[in-house]
Amino acid sequence: QVQLVESGGGLVQVGGSLSLSCTASGSVFKPNAMGWYRQSPGTQRELVAVTFTGGVTNYGDSVKGRFTISRDSAESTVYLQMNNLQREDTAVYYCNFRDLRLHNDAWGQGTQVTVSS
């Protein structure tokens, strides 16, 4: 079992920046993937960014060039640096951990990001 605790989030103006972090504990085995998903009212949850064991990263089309995902050397904490935020980025952001051997996953509690003009 893996537990995820998110931090960050808040209110920012259009064009501003914000950073999120998520720390995993418990059975953090490799290979794995850690990433961020988001959901706004009336929409389905969508991929924001994900990073895999070995360093491969993938981004949703709407955030490419603006957001950067990274994690520490122990792969226990994942970060999301969000730059040039737009109103469309307003959502609840959820951290995800997926064990690629056991085929299970865990989710963080979610953190609200609100971008205002």
Structural overview:
The radius of gyration is 14 Å and the shape is globular. The protein has no helices and eleven strands. Helix content is 0%, strand content 58%. Strands 2, 4, 5, 6, 9, 10 and 11 form a seven-stranded mixed sheet that branches. It has a four-stranded antiparallel sheet with strand order 1-3-8-7, with no helix packed on it. The termini are far apart. The mean pLDDT is 96. It is mainly beta and 117 residues long.
Distance between the termini: 41 Å
Number of strands: 11
Report Rg: 14 Å
Percent helix range: under 10%
- Please describe the biggest sheet, giving its number of strands, its sense, and whether it closes into a barrel: 7 strands, mixed
Low-confidence stretches: none
Q: Could you state the order of secondary-structure elements as H and E?
A: EEEEEEEEEEE
Percent strand equals: over 45%
> How many individual helices?
0
Shape: globular
Average residue pLDDT: 96
Broad structural category: mainly beta
In short:
This protein has strands at residues 2-8, 10-13, 18-26, 32-39, 46-52, 57-59, 67-71, 77-82, 91-99, 104-107, 111-116. It is mainly β and 117 residues long.
Feature tags:
117 residues, mainly beta, 7-stranded mixed sheet, 4-stranded antiparallel sheet, globular
SSE arrangement:
Blueprint: E1 2-8, E2 10-13, E3 18-26, E4 32-39, E5 46-52, E6 57-59, E7 67-71, E8 77-82, E9 91-99, E10 104-107, E11 111-116
Parallel strand pairs: 2-11
Antiparallel strand pairs: 1-3, 3-8, 4-5, 4-9, 5-6, 7-8, 9-10, 9-11
